[in-house]
Amino acid sequence: MENVLRPLIVLGGSVIVTLALGWIVDLLLRRTDARHHETPLWGRLRACRIPLQLVLVTALLRGSYRQLELGLINDHEAGIGQVLSLVLIGASAWLVIRIGVAIVESSYSRYAAGSRDAARVRRVRTQVTLISRVLTAVVGTIAVAAMLLTFPEMKAVGTSMLASAGIIGVVAGVAAQSTLGNLFAGFQIAFGDMVRIGDTVVVDGEWGTVEEVTLTFLAVRTWDERRITMPVSYFTSKPFENWSRGGAQMTGTVFFHLDHSAPIPLMREKLHEILKGSSAWDGRDWSLALTDTTPSTIQVRAVATAKDADDIWTVRCAIREQMIAWLNEKHAYALPRISTAPAVPLPNHRGHYVDLRKQADGPDPEDVQVRTGRG
Questions:
Q1: Exposed (0-12), middle (13-18) or buried (19+): which is 136, by Cβ within 10 Å?
Q2: How confident is the model at residue 176 (pLDDT cuts 50, 70, 90)?
Q3: Helix (H, G, I), strand (E, B), or coil: what is residue 210?
Q4: CA dihedral 214, 218, 222, 226 (to 10 degrees)
Q5: What is the pTM of this model?
Q6: DSSP state string for 269-324
């Protein structure tokens, strides 16, 4: 009877204590979150319930599994203890990562809720993302190292590795040069405010929005829903356009090549009318000016402003479409034309102009005599 009750008490007691403690902690967090709505940390910490319970039940079993006094457990005591130790280390790392991410994310949420500067919010979001990834990488590395050190064989390997640490360090440094470069470039992007999540950039002639920033790569979502993945070291070693740097507001231009007779004052009035009817125009500024002229056309530049890159694209397209349609309907003469005129006749040796139409019937006899030396 004791052989049956002892395992039930040990295993059942561990599970009951784990469930009870998990429920108590979740209840306290739920009540604290209800009293302090301004602090999102307590609500986010509730996501740590599962790893917390896993840590508790593994720790209880790790300390009490020898009390089961079962033949199978006695025969494999070292192996069972090893497995429980590995699970405990992994669960503890999971719990630490969940707590750290909850703290970082709650800090960002409070900052984003109280800030009206969208550029600063994107900057903090980029930094928070990279901090979370760094925390996960560091804790994961420490957990794996701790798991390996639980094996007696790995301790001997570790001692021999320390003896040749200099050579291994040089080899690893050369082999991981590109990876380490991207890693430090990721930190430089995050804390140097070069590019942020949500920024509008132009990279290698491609226009898009920064969608994801990691420690090693950066993803740009283009206007046609493609994703361009680039190493972060690209943004620290080559020039690129960041249209959101210093603010999302933008000024766009539209050029028209027209005939010299184009009605510039009327076009200026029409431009203002188009902008007033466009919801994408932010109303800050607009203008229309004749910026250049050639023997056959003139160049007219329309300028408008918008709150971001997406709206400035919409405004520019609307100006082109509506202005060309208006010119074609009301002032067709203003559209560019190719002017033609009769060719000027060439003079002959006596200073008289040659009728080009008569040249089709044959050359002038007098011209022939002059060219041949006769007459």
A1: middle
A2: very low
A3: strand
A4: -80
A5: 0.49
A6: HHHHHHHHT-TTEEEEEEEEEEEEE-SS-EEEEEEEEESSHHHHHHHHHHHHHHHH
